[in-house]
Design goal:
CATH topology: endopeptidase fold (from Nostoc punctiforme)
Distance between the termini: 58 Å
CATH architecture: Alpha-Beta Complex
Largest sheet: 6 strands, antiparallel
Helix content: 25-40%
Shape: globular
Number of helices: 6
Radius of gyration: 22 Å
Strand content: 15-25%
Number of strands: 10
Order of helices and strands: HEHHEEHEHEEEEEHE
CATH class: Alpha Beta
Number of domains: 1
Strand order of the largest sheet: 5-10-6-7-8-9
CATH superfamily: endopeptidase domain like (from Nostoc punctiforme)
Length: about 170
């Protein structure tokens, strides 16, 4: 068989391969609104485990900050306020969030509290009808947050009446 004949025999197989590959790719999914995923900023853990959701990576980052002091306006390991902790933790997962708890709430994908998963955000209205506090849900009704002056990043429970009565919503990135 000549070289030209061999090349002609490969065309049907190559054409089929291109069609099958294109059909399997499916439509591209857009990034979540108001959250920007920076692939180049992903930590080594995300590259090692690309299936891990950004919320779970953020939860891991928040766990590493347990005990760090509360600092009003703080958004780094020298001290955190609630939204600073969330913003910092999600940045470790490659997701850029707005700075305040209310802005984070507005840009998150809202989910039912019954669908709460580790890495989701829990939003609270400390004063009536306005989101003013945020934490990252961990497990077993516990969430991580930067509570207030004089306290450090810690766990709290959604079962505690104070938090249960003030739960405003659940969001996901």
């Amino acid at each position: 068989m000549s070289l030209a004949t061999q090349k002609m025999a490969l065309w049907p197989a190559l054409t089929l391969l291109v069609i099958v590959t294109a059909a399997c790719s499916g439509p591209a999914r857009p990034a979540p609104p108001a959250a920007v995923l920076h692939i180049e900023a992903l930590p080594a853990a995300a590259i090692a485990d690309p299936v891990k959701a950004p919320g779970l990576m953020a939860l891991d980052a928040a766990r590493q900050m347990l005990g760090v002091a509360y600092r009003y306006g703080g958004a780094d390991p020298r001290g955190f306020d609630c939204s600073g902790l969330v913003q910092y933790s999600f940045s470790r997962a490659g997701v850029t969030l707005p700075r305040t708890s209310q802005e984070i709430f507005r840009s998150s994908q809202l989910v039912s509290p019954q669908e709460l998963q580790p890495g989701d955000l829990v939003f609270f209205a400390i004063s009536p009808s306005k989101v003013s506090h945020v934490g990252i849900y961990a497990d077993g009704q516990r969430f991580i947050h930067a509570p207030s002056s004089g306290k450090g990043v810690s766990y709290a429970s959604l079962d505690e009446p104070y938090w249960r009565e003030r739960l405003f919503g659940v969001g996901r990135f």
